[in-house]
Specification:
This protein is mostly helical. The protein contains 10 helices and 4 strands; from the N terminus they run ααββααααβαβααα.
Length: about 220
């Protein structure tokens, strides 16, 4: 298993998250994660195969993007997605965060990648992350380690995101766009962490699925 964050600023936050009492709801949500990830993985396998072949024909390798993210209790994991940006885009975008990152990323999308991102089909491979236990279907979006350290220093409550697994979708993504400030996104993430339940989990999945369907059909 990957090592948790170790620097002097964030190591204290990791301990706080790890010492937070576990709740029964987390076991229930983990069971749902496994069931849904297995079901949707089988259902979407033909679509994933078609996307991979189309990417190879249009944009070449690599088909998948892998990037290090911070997970529950500060442990690192490798997130897996279909590549939507030009090769080596992360090296060019690495120093940026927030609105500036959103603006610069727009110029990095491939034509096919832009459609994948809008439809959120680029996230199909993350079902593997859910099965592994790196992620959940619902939770705060995973963040890069260097950005976690920066944001935790500026937003005192940011460490609480480490209490739960990061998610494929969450309140911040369902309610607001990419341009939303990190402080506002955090407020939505903290609402999920405090109120998480099976009905809320299911409602979030249904709402996200409906939004993705409208976006995909609309394009």
């Amino acid at each position: 298993m990957a090592e948790p964050l170790q620097d002097t600023l964030t190591s204290g936050y990791v301990r706080l998250a790890a010492d937070t009492p576990r709740r029964r709801i987390d076991v229930e949500l983990r069971v749902l994660d496994i069931l849904f990830a297995a079901f949707f993985g089988l259902l979407l396998f033909p679509i994933a195969g078609a996307i991979a072949l189309a990417m190879l024909a249009r944009d070449g390798r690599p088909v998948l993007y892998r990037g290090e993210r911070v997970g529950r209790h500060g442990r690192f994991f490798m997130i897996v997605k279909f590549r939507t940006l030009r090769r080596d885009a992360e090296k060019r975008l690495g120093p940026f965060l927030g609105e500036e990152l959103v603006r610069l990323t727009e110029a990095e999308y491939t034509r096919f990648g832009r459609w994948l991102k809008a439809s959120q089909l680029d996230e199909i491979p993350q079902l593997w992350n859910v099965l592994r236990g790196d992620m959940s279907f619902v939770g705060p979006r995973p963040i890069r380690p260097r950005f976690f350290a920066e944001l935790a220093g500026n937003l005192p409550a940011y460490w609480q995101r480490l209490v739960v697994r990061p998610g494929l979708t969450g309140f911040a993504q369902m309610r607001r766009g990419y341009e939303t400030s990190m402080a506002e996104k955090l407020s939505h993430d903290l609402e999920w962490i405090a109120d998480r339940s099976v009905p809320l989990y299911l409602r979030t999945l249904v709402s996200t699925g409906w939004r993705v369907l409208r976006q995909t059909v609309g394009r």
